[in-house]
Amino acid sequence: MSHESQTPSFSTTRRDASCGELRRHDAGRRVRLCGWVDRRRDHGGLLFVDLRDRWGRTQLVFDPDRLGAEVFAEAGRLRAEDVIAVEGAVRERPEEARSDKLATGEIEVHVERLELLNRAETPPFPVSASAREGDDVAMETRMRYRHIDLRRPVVQQRLIFRHRVVMALRQALDALGFVEIETPILTRSTPEGARDYLVPSRLQHGSFYALPQSPQLFKQLLMVAGYDRYFQVARCFRDEDLRADRQPEFTQLDLEMSFVDEEDIYRTLEQVLAEVWQRCKGVQLERPFARLRYDEAIARYGSDRPDLRNPLEIRDVTDVAARSPFGFLAEAAAAPRTRTEPGGAVRALRVPGAADRLSRKELDALGELVAPTGAKGVGWIKVAEGGELRGALRKGFPDALGAALRERLEAQPGDLVLVVADRNADVAAAACGRLRETLGRQLGLVDTSADRLVWITDFPYFEYDPETDGYIACRHPFTQPAADSIDRLEDEPLAVRTRAYDLVLNGSEIGSGSVRNHDVEIQKRVLAVMGYSPEESEQRFGFLMEALRSGAPPHAGAAIGLDRFCALLLGLDNLREVVAFPKTTRASCLLTHAPAPVDPAQLAALGLRIRSDVSVGE
RNA sequence: GGGGCCGUAGCUCAAUUGGUUAGAGUACCGGACUGUCGAUCCGGUGGUUGCGGGUUCGAGUCCCGUCGGCCUCGCCA
Prior knowledge:
Layout: E1 30-42, E2 47-53, E3 56-62, H1 69-76, E4 83-92, E5 107-118, H2 139-144, H3 146-149, H4 153-175, E6 179-180, E7 198-200, E8 208-210, H5 216-224, E9 229-237, E10 249-258, H6 262-281, E11 290-293, H7 294-301, E12 314-316, H8 318-321, H9 327-334, E13 345-351, H10 360-370, E14 379-383, E15 389-390, H11 399-409, E16 416-422, H12 425-442, E17 453-457, E18 462-465, E19 470-473, E20 500-505, E21 508-515, H13 520-529, H14 534-548, E22 555-561, H15 562-569, H16 600-606
Parallel strand pairs: 3-5, 6-9, 11-17
Antiparallel strand pairs: 1-2, 1-4, 2-3, 4-5, 7-8, 9-10, 10-22, 12-13, 13-16, 14-15, 14-16, 17-20, 18-19, 20-21, 21-22
Helix pairs in contact: 4-6, 7-12, 13-14
The structure holds one RNA strand.
């Protein structure tokens, strides 16, 4: 899984070595070891105990011929997870008794003295790595006994891997002149868009701190303060519903630089991440990373976080479909762009050689797959041996249209072509994106042998919000609008693009960032588009505006979702696997039973009273 | 807030159409065993089937409620 870091010396007052380091050349040494009883194999007249710590396992031999009867009897009473200290002689194992399953398999320690440091209750589930496979312990049980779960070698390796990732990041950033600075946890609400966790103030009844959703504003203030290059391994809090890839508190690698543009952020992060791959996975990352403009990503992959390991690509066939005798094709193609609608489109996905790989039933099921995107259905055409088209949709592309379609898609005999038409191009794109993802996986087209990173750039600044008939920022509103679209801020907000970027790894967004507004006038105009009056802007973000007026350098930054990043690097799909003390989907900690009711006196001190007539969520 | 799945021994699971005394592996306890490494062999303990109610001659199984966990849509970068 990972590269061993160098083992430090374990010589302390209680032990001479860890359980993972003794080798054949240590034979003859007298050593003291400490650890947990991993497993014991009791032969009556001879007793083996595997002693475990986080560095490995070492076989202990209790031989009554070399041991007092009392000590041997004491050894016989050892049970899994008892904590012991032993002293004995390292011996090379007999040839036939060597084990290649253990790094220490060539030696064993013949115990002469045994000290039981602490007796352990029978654990609720096995800690030993050599427990039977396939009997995965339920996450609920693991979280309830997390201190024991965390003792399992697989879990330890994950957290240690995470540590190595963080260390690689820290060292790489330090080498580049970055300064790690902590920002407040008790702060005030920042406009990140999520619900805040609130902390009541004892000294000011009725006022609340908010836990930060990110250090966004603080890091901008640090740029204003002249700190040039800042980073932080920052805890962030968002009080929203949970998912496998979402915890209520999570960690970001947060960074910000002054006197830079996008390119500097790209180069910096690429260098820092290459360091992580190098040191944590032993892999040389290809640099620079790939780049895609947002509209290009949507057009070719139907997603703003495409998995580039999937070779399938979407093509636009709107112009061909516009001439189709099929009404739904021609109408979708002709749907006009309006103030709030992007216009219609017909998109096609060619799946090479797949004409015979999907059954009629599977093809019909694609419609359901695509339904959540709002698409009405999926048409399909197969390219037969002679090049002629097959399937119900072929009549929608007669004669020259069929040829045009084949040419556009570079379709070969044996190919399957999936077509989605919609009066909203975004829907057609999203539907094709889903088809691409699902078929790529289902047909085994995704090349999982290498990690693929890609920057997504040139996002639209605003999104139309039908509920308020207004505009909301797609990213966050402190991003600079792209220079060549800034004039459209007031008259055509949807045409404005941001200087924001996402970093996508194997189809998952692992980070995002932007070039910030350092010009207070532009910042005001952006907030105005979002419906903030100058007074409101000043009231909510006054401290930022003030800072921007006080000598703010041009600055830009980014943040990497560290938990998700580590999970992806380890090929895990649940953040809980890389978080030491994770929470459930209801945001409780099964180990500490947080959140919990508090003493009435505590509430009184805060000036709070719990109303029983208001249910949760109201 | 909505949807889906799940809850049986410490753990991982089984239990026919609603049927009689709820089983297995492992863990645990006891015994045997001097080269094992998932030790092996023999024996044994262990159950409020999450909780509450209902239907039924009869409920682990069906229905309602509730608690908890997981996944997911909304929400959230």
